[in-house]
Every structure is written in C-alpha cells, then in structure tokens.
Amino acid sequence: MEPCSFALVSYHRLKDVSTLDRLCQTLLDHGFTLDEENPDLVLVLGGDGSFLRAIDEHNGKGSYLLINTGHLGFYADYGIEEMDDFLDDILSKEPLYESLPRLAYVSQRTESLATSDIVVQAEKTIDLTLYLNGRLLCSTKASGIVIGTPASSTAYLGSLLSPAIPTSSDIYQYALIAPVRNRLYPNPIDKAVLSKDDVLEIEVKGKASLHLDGMRKADAISETFQVALRKSDPLHLIHFRPRDNLQRILRSVSGIEEE
Known about the structure:
The chain has 259 residues and is α/β, with parallel strands linked by helices. It has helices at 17-29, 48-57, 83-92, 156-159, 245-254, and strands at 5-9, 33-34, 41-46, 63-68, 76-79, 96-107, 111-114, 117-132, 135-148, 171-177, 191-195, 199-205, 208-212, 215-221, 224-239. It is built from five helices and 15 strands. Strand 3, helix 2 (48-57) and strand 4 (63-68) form a beta-alpha-beta unit. It is elongated, with a radius of gyration of 20 Å. The two termini are 23 Å apart.
C-alpha cells in the first residue's frame, strides 16, 4: 500500500502496549504519517463496538480497518495475534476497497448516519406509526423498532428473527420489538425488507431512547423521523484479504472460514 496519513484508535488498554507502539513505529518508518484529526486510514484495535465508535468519532471519513482484540470481530480481517501478517500485508500488498451503505436518520432535531442499525427502544410500550414512501404501513404499540443495514442483519435484527442479508447492499430492513397483538392491533406489519429507494417514516409517541450503532444518542424522544439508505455517502473499508458480507456472516454466525 502506498504510504498515507493514518490514525490509531484503541479505547481499551491493551495487555501488551508494545504491540501498539510497534505498529505505529513500523508505519512511520515506511513513510506513513500520523494524523489524528483527518486521516486517510483509521486503524482500530478493539472489537466491533470500538470499530463503530471510531467511525462515529471520525464522521465516517477516510477508510477503516479493524484489528480484533475483542470476541466476535465481525468487521475484522485480522486478530491481534496476526500483527506480523498485517504489517507484511500493508507494506507489500495493494488494498482492496469495500463500500458499505449507511442509514440516514433525519428529524427536525438532527441528522445522523448509522453503519449498522438505528434502534428506538422503550421500557414500556409506545405508539409507533410507520409510513412507507408517504403511505401508511402500520400503526401499533410495541417496545421499539430496529432498522438495520445488511451488515447488521445477523445482530439485533437477527435476534428478532429477521432474515440474514448476505450479499445485497441495495436493501435494508426493520423489525418491531415485541409488538402488541390483540383485537385493537391484530396484524401489524412487524417486519419488512425495503429497497434502496424506499423512505421509511416513523412517528414515535411515548418515552423512548434512540441508539445509533449501539451508542445512545438521545433519551425520551417522542418525534417523527425518516430513515433511508444513503448509498451516496458510504463507509469505506480497506482489506488486504478478500472479504465481503457473506464471508463475515459465515465466519461469525456459522463458524465457517472460507479459504
């Protein structure tokens, strides 16, 4: 890879801090420059939560690579024990780039982007009314809603029995959390897969919290907001090993590691 500016992000103290020092010094010795404010490449040492947090703090700018020091490492190409392999690859191989679409959250209060999912969650049931492209889709009570990208289809959405999306990047989906089912709300459309052109509008009435990519953004929201797939402002991942969403799902969910 051609030398570029980079930032190292680690939110948890590593057991062996010399690993971080070695990584930084090796890159500096080969012409890379350290830039914590506006890097071309963001290297994250941690788990998936640290990875999503780094994306949030850098506003999704630049390209990203996760070196896993956590457990699952869904987005990771390397484990911390593979540092020698990573250093060999970044210095000798041309990178492969992958673009992941993100979800846009738009309300009168704010506008934000999410790489994984947008979650509205309440301790008690709240009123949720969903509109699809301006047409009423369902109106019900539930404990919340999860809207996610294909990359998140096996995370919170998977626990709500939503389908995995292994290959497409042109769709997103939602699932209601514990929807009420009675004679007043007999048949809510509690799950749906939407296209890249679909705009989902959600009216929330009641006390609920808002989380983007697992990070709490607001408490006690009661507002109307829109969600749509924002392919024009994707997240850029960098790889030195072939990797796509299907491979990530197979490895993380089924334990299958493709050669």
